[in-house]
Design goal:
alpha/beta, 8 helices
Protein backbone atom coordinates (compact mmCIF):
# COMPACT_ATOMS: atom_id res chain seq x y z
CA UNK A 1 0.00 0.00 0.00
CA UNK A 2 1.30 3.48 -0.88
CA UNK A 3 2.28 5.75 2.00
CA UNK A 4 -0.02 8.77 2.20
CA UNK A 5 -0.15 9.11 5.99
CA UNK A 6 1.16 12.67 6.09
CA UNK A 7 -0.78 14.02 3.14
CA UNK A 8 -3.12 16.24 5.17
CA UNK A 9 -3.17 19.44 7.20
CA UNK A 10 -4.26 17.94 10.53
CA UNK A 11 -2.34 18.33 13.78
CA UNK A 12 0.84 16.23 13.67
CA UNK A 13 1.39 13.81 16.54
CA UNK A 14 4.68 12.15 17.42
CA UNK A 15 5.47 9.26 15.09
CA UNK A 16 4.24 5.84 16.25
CA UNK A 17 4.50 2.40 14.66
CA UNK A 18 0.74 1.91 14.79
CA UNK A 19 -1.64 0.11 12.44
CA UNK A 20 -1.66 2.93 9.89
CA UNK A 21 2.14 2.94 9.65
CA UNK A 22 2.37 -0.86 9.51
CA UNK A 23 0.04 -0.92 6.50
CA UNK A 24 2.38 1.30 4.45
CA UNK A 25 5.71 0.68 6.18
CA UNK A 26 7.49 -1.16 3.36
CA UNK A 27 6.60 1.56 0.86
CA UNK A 28 7.46 4.29 3.38
CA UNK A 29 10.94 3.04 4.18
CA UNK A 30 11.91 2.38 0.56
CA UNK A 31 10.81 5.87 -0.52
CA UNK A 32 12.25 7.63 2.53
CA UNK A 33 15.61 5.97 3.26
CA UNK A 34 18.33 6.36 0.62
CA UNK A 35 20.16 3.07 0.16
CA UNK A 36 17.63 1.01 2.11
CA UNK A 37 17.65 -1.95 -0.25
CA UNK A 38 21.48 -1.92 -0.28
CA UNK A 39 21.43 -1.96 3.54
CA UNK A 40 19.30 -5.10 3.54
CA UNK A 41 21.44 -6.75 0.88
CA UNK A 42 24.65 -6.04 2.80
CA UNK A 43 23.18 -7.43 6.02
CA UNK A 44 22.49 -10.65 4.14
CA UNK A 45 26.03 -10.81 2.76
CA UNK A 46 27.56 -10.17 6.19
CA UNK A 47 25.47 -13.03 7.56
CA UNK A 48 27.29 -15.39 5.19
CA UNK A 49 30.62 -14.35 6.70
CA UNK A 50 29.85 -13.98 10.40
CA UNK A 51 27.01 -16.42 11.04
CA UNK A 52 27.97 -19.51 13.05
CA UNK A 53 26.57 -23.02 13.43
CA UNK A 54 24.40 -23.71 16.48
CA UNK A 55 23.76 -20.03 17.23
CA UNK A 56 21.02 -17.41 17.36
CA UNK A 57 20.45 -14.61 14.85
CA UNK A 58 18.62 -11.60 16.35
CA UNK A 59 16.77 -8.87 14.46
CA UNK A 60 16.06 -6.15 17.03
CA UNK A 61 13.31 -3.83 15.86
CA UNK A 62 12.26 -6.26 13.16
CA UNK A 63 9.27 -4.25 11.84
CA UNK A 64 7.65 -6.22 9.00
CA UNK A 65 10.49 -8.75 8.78
CA UNK A 66 12.56 -7.71 5.73
CA UNK A 67 15.85 -7.91 7.63
CA UNK A 68 14.97 -11.24 9.25
CA UNK A 69 14.16 -12.63 5.83
CA UNK A 70 17.53 -11.45 4.50
CA UNK A 71 19.25 -13.22 7.41
CA UNK A 72 17.44 -16.46 6.63
CA UNK A 73 17.89 -16.36 2.85
CA UNK A 74 21.65 -15.83 3.25
CA UNK A 75 22.21 -18.24 6.11
CA UNK A 76 24.76 -20.96 5.29
CA UNK A 77 25.03 -22.41 8.80
CA UNK A 78 23.41 -25.38 10.53
CA UNK A 79 21.04 -25.33 13.50
CA UNK A 80 20.37 -21.59 13.49
CA UNK A 81 17.51 -20.05 15.47
CA UNK A 82 16.06 -16.74 14.18
CA UNK A 83 14.64 -14.26 16.70
CA UNK A 84 12.68 -11.22 15.45
CA UNK A 85 11.70 -8.69 18.12
CA UNK A 86 9.58 -5.54 17.94
CA UNK A 87 7.66 -3.56 20.55
CA UNK A 88 4.74 -2.80 18.22
CA UNK A 89 2.05 -5.47 18.40
CA UNK A 90 0.84 -4.48 14.94
CA UNK A 91 4.36 -4.86 13.53
CA UNK A 92 4.78 -8.24 15.20
CA UNK A 93 1.51 -9.49 13.71
CA UNK A 94 2.59 -8.34 10.24
CA UNK A 95 6.05 -9.85 10.68
CA UNK A 96 4.54 -13.23 11.59
CA UNK A 97 2.18 -13.04 8.62
CA UNK A 98 5.08 -12.23 6.27
CA UNK A 99 7.54 -14.86 7.56
CA UNK A 100 5.79 -17.81 9.20
CA UNK A 101 5.74 -19.85 5.99
CA UNK A 102 9.20 -18.72 4.83
CA UNK A 103 11.57 -19.36 7.75
CA UNK A 104 12.05 -22.46 9.87
CA UNK A 105 13.22 -22.05 13.49
CA UNK A 106 11.69 -18.57 13.71
CA UNK A 107 10.54 -16.88 16.90
CA UNK A 108 8.73 -13.53 16.65
CA UNK A 109 8.46 -11.69 19.97
CA UNK A 110 6.58 -8.55 20.99
CA UNK A 111 8.83 -6.85 23.54
CA UNK A 112 10.93 -3.80 24.29
CA UNK A 113 14.41 -4.78 23.09
CA UNK A 114 15.84 -3.21 26.24
CA UNK A 115 14.11 -5.95 28.24
CA UNK A 116 15.13 -9.04 26.27
CA UNK A 117 18.13 -11.29 26.86
CA UNK A 118 20.70 -11.84 24.10
CA UNK A 119 22.21 -15.33 24.26
CA UNK A 120 24.52 -17.44 22.08
CA UNK A 121 24.28 -14.90 19.24
CA UNK A 122 26.48 -14.89 16.16
CA UNK A 123 24.45 -12.17 14.39
CA UNK A 124 22.61 -9.24 15.95
CA UNK A 125 21.05 -6.53 13.78
CA UNK A 126 19.75 -3.09 14.71
CA UNK A 127 18.46 -1.87 11.35
CA UNK A 128 17.12 1.69 11.77
CA UNK A 129 16.24 0.82 15.38
CA UNK A 130 18.80 2.36 17.73
CA UNK A 131 17.75 5.86 16.62
CA UNK A 132 14.38 5.33 18.35
CA UNK A 133 15.97 4.27 21.67
CA UNK A 134 16.53 6.90 24.37
CA UNK A 135 20.12 8.10 24.01
CA UNK A 136 20.91 7.39 27.66
CA UNK A 137 19.86 3.73 27.18
CA UNK A 138 21.86 3.02 24.05
CA UNK A 139 25.16 2.08 25.70
CA UNK A 140 23.47 -0.41 28.04
CA UNK A 141 21.79 -2.06 25.05
CA UNK A 142 25.06 -2.30 23.11
CA UNK A 143 26.85 -3.79 26.15
CA UNK A 144 24.10 -6.37 26.54
CA UNK A 145 24.46 -7.31 22.88
CA UNK A 146 28.23 -7.55 23.21
CA UNK A 147 27.91 -9.84 26.22
CA UNK A 148 25.44 -12.05 24.35
CA UNK A 149 27.58 -12.45 21.23
CA UNK A 150 29.86 -15.44 20.82
CA UNK A 151 33.48 -14.92 19.79
CA UNK A 152 33.61 -13.88 16.14
CA UNK A 153 29.96 -12.84 16.16
CA UNK A 154 28.84 -9.56 14.60
CA UNK A 155 26.65 -6.61 15.48
CA UNK A 156 25.29 -4.77 12.43
CA UNK A 157 23.78 -1.32 12.91
CA UNK A 158 22.16 0.98 10.34
CA UNK A 159 21.14 4.47 11.43
CA UNK A 160 20.22 7.92 10.32
CA UNK A 161 23.21 10.06 11.29
CA UNK A 162 24.17 13.72 11.24
CA UNK A 163 27.36 15.73 10.89
CA UNK A 164 28.32 18.55 13.23
CA UNK A 165 29.18 21.07 10.53
CA UNK A 166 25.94 23.03 10.01
CA UNK A 167 26.54 23.81 6.34
CA UNK A 168 27.40 20.22 5.48
CA UNK A 169 24.40 18.97 7.43
CA UNK A 170 22.14 21.42 5.59
CA UNK A 171 23.38 20.04 2.26
CA UNK A 172 22.76 16.46 3.38
CA UNK A 173 19.28 17.38 4.58
CA UNK A 174 18.38 19.05 1.29
CA UNK A 175 19.67 16.05 -0.68
CA UNK A 176 17.54 13.79 1.49
CA UNK A 177 14.51 15.98 0.81
CA UNK A 178 15.29 15.79 -2.92
CA UNK A 179 15.35 11.99 -2.63
CA UNK A 180 11.88 12.04 -1.09
CA UNK A 181 10.58 14.45 -3.73
CA UNK A 182 11.94 12.20 -6.47
CA UNK A 183 10.03 9.31 -4.88
CA UNK A 184 6.71 11.13 -5.03
CA UNK A 185 6.41 12.80 -1.63
CA UNK A 186 4.88 16.30 -1.61
CA UNK A 187 6.30 19.24 0.31
CA UNK A 188 3.43 18.88 2.78
CA UNK A 189 4.16 15.20 3.38
CA UNK A 190 7.87 15.87 3.85
CA UNK A 191 7.26 18.69 6.32
CA UNK A 192 4.62 16.78 8.28
CA UNK A 193 6.72 13.65 8.63
CA UNK A 194 9.75 15.65 9.70
CA UNK A 195 7.66 17.30 12.42
CA UNK A 196 6.26 13.94 13.51
CA UNK A 197 9.74 12.43 13.91
CA UNK A 198 11.38 15.47 15.51
CA UNK A 199 11.04 14.28 19.12
CA UNK A 200 11.15 10.55 18.37
CA UNK A 201 14.08 9.87 16.02
CA UNK A 202 17.25 11.18 17.70
CA UNK A 203 20.35 11.05 15.52
CA UNK A 204 24.05 10.98 16.45
CA UNK A 205 27.18 11.41 14.36
CA UNK A 206 29.30 8.50 13.13
CA UNK A 207 32.09 9.26 15.59
CA UNK A 208 29.69 8.92 18.53
CA UNK A 209 28.50 5.53 17.28
CA UNK A 210 32.04 4.22 16.82
CA UNK A 211 33.18 5.57 20.20
CA UNK A 212 30.25 3.89 21.97
CA UNK A 213 30.93 0.58 20.25
CA UNK A 214 34.55 0.71 21.38
CA UNK A 215 33.62 1.64 24.95
CA UNK A 216 31.15 -1.27 25.05
CA UNK A 217 33.88 -3.80 24.25
CA UNK A 218 34.12 -4.08 20.47
CA UNK A 219 37.76 -3.93 19.41
CA UNK A 220 36.96 -3.76 15.68
CA UNK A 221 34.21 -1.51 14.30
CA UNK A 222 33.84 0.21 10.96
CA UNK A 223 31.36 2.32 9.03
CA UNK A 224 31.12 0.14 5.93
CA UNK A 225 28.29 1.89 4.08
CA UNK A 226 26.81 5.38 3.86
CA UNK A 227 24.25 6.96 1.55
CA UNK A 228 23.60 10.62 2.33
CA UNK A 229 22.66 10.77 6.02
CA UNK A 230 22.20 7.03 6.55
CA UNK A 231 25.12 4.85 7.64
CA UNK A 232 25.81 1.21 8.51
CA UNK A 233 28.33 -0.07 11.04
CA UNK A 234 29.90 -3.50 11.53
CA UNK A 235 31.34 -4.55 14.88
CA UNK A 236 32.92 -7.96 15.47
CA UNK A 237 33.54 -9.53 18.88
Amino acid sequence: MRDQIFNNQSDIADFRFDESVVAVFDDMVKRSVPGYEAMIQMIGLLTRTYGKDNSNYYDLGASTGATTLALALNNKRANVHFVAIDNSRQMVNQCRQNLDDKIDNLEVICSDINDICIENASIVVLNLTLQFIDIDKRADLIRKIYDGLISGGALIISEKVHVDDKNEQARLTELHMDYKRANGYSELEIANKRQSLENVLLTENCETHLKRLSECGFSASTCYFQCLNFASFLSVK
